[in-house]
Amino acid sequence: MNKWHDDIFDNLEWRINELTELKAIVISSNTGPVRREVILRSLILMLYAHFEGFCKFLWDYYLDYIEKQHLPRSMLQDSLACLSLSKYFSILKKDSSLEKIFDLSSNFPGAMNDAAIFESKLETASNLKIRIFRENIKKINILVPIAEDRCKTVDALVHMRNEIAHGKKGFIKDIDEYKVYERAVVLVMDSLAIEIMDALEEKKFIKQSP
Q1: How many H-runs (helices) and E-runs (strands) does the chain carry?
Q2: Which phi and psi (to 5°) does residue 89 adopt?
Q3: What is the tens place of the pLDDT at every residue in 9-62?
Q4: Interatomic CA distance for residues 65 and 43, integer angstroms
Q5: CA proximity to 205, closest of 103, 10, 15, 64
Q6: More confident residue, 24 or 141
Q7: 3-state secondary structure string, 89-147?
Q8: Which of 147, 133, 144 is nearest to 184 (CA)?
Q9: Which of 27, 58, 31, 59 is nearest to 43 (CA)?
């Protein structure tokens, strides 16, 4: 068994266990409706936190692994090479003069031969909707097929999380309704984990020869 399998599985397992414990509190609780609503709202917040946290963990883990291989950018898939050059290209945002463009283009071959370093990681902006999720996985050349109804459920979760953060009440009436959101989110997390592990196993981050 590869180390990354254990690392990824362990990170997912403790998150699922924590959600399971919280669900058990709701199911076994004989408390009144107010406290039950508070616990259900807490579950929504925790579910989103683990969704964002696990995705961020996987993306960082993948990029850190690639970085440790000390591969020149020219050997990486174009999207990964581009991501590793984020800081290099960001210079143009400050100075897009012809002189600066010429300077960067002159040094570009050397930058492509340097070992890839990911100084800029993938961000979520604490608002990880499916659109942002897809944009991020595209940057690391990972494909995660997600059914349309699941996309809508995940986005609904993000919306609820934001509404709760802004002081709104309600949203989830019982544990069964919550489970719909948890099922969709965990399936996305599982799918991403599988694709990342497959990419590590098959070294899909390396550019294929024509």
Answers
A1: 8, 0
A2: -75, -25
A3: 999 999 999 999 888 887 776 666 777 788 888 899 999 999 999 999 999 999
A4: 32
A5: 64
A6: 141
A7: HHHHHHCCCHHHHHHHHHHHHHHHHCECCCCCCCCCCCCCCHHHHHHHHHHCCCCCCCC
A8: 147
A9: 27
CB atoms within 10 A of CB 124: 16
pLDDT per residue over 70-122, tens digit each?
999 999 999 999 899 887 766 666 766 767 666 666 666 667 788 999 988 89
CA–CA dist 66, 24 (Å, integer)? 39
Q: Are 85 and 73 in contact (CB under 8 A)?
A: yes
Coil, strand or helix at 205: coil
Give the distance, in angstroms, between the CA of residue 107 and the centroid of all CA atoms in the same chain: 32
What is the pTM (predicted TM-score) of this model? 0.89
